[in-house]
Structures are given as structure tokens and as C-alpha cells.
Amino acid sequence: MLILTGTALALYGPPIFSLGGWLTGLILIIFACIGRSIALREEKRDEYNVSI
To answer: Which of 27, 29, 35, 44 counts the highest number of beta carbons within 10 A?
Structure first.
């Protein structure tokens, strides 16, 4: 996803270099939030299974 976004930005985007950095940071933060929610969901599921 990062490679496709970077390629599209380089070919069709404005000649502003910092825009790529901002987009990369935003995508990484989104992936981190998704990963955190998945990890927390699995942790709660494991706690529930152990206590039974």
C-alpha cells in the first residue's frame, strides 16, 4: 500500500516532497491503530478463555 501510494504521488501528485512524508505517517498511524485494536481484542478473548 505504501509503495503504490508513493508511486502514484510521484507520478501524478504535486511536486511537494513533504506531502509524501505526511501521507506515509498517516498510513502508518492508521495501521498502528488497526493492529492495536486487533491485539487488544485477542487479549480480551484469551483472558475470557483462561478464566473459564
So the answer is: 27
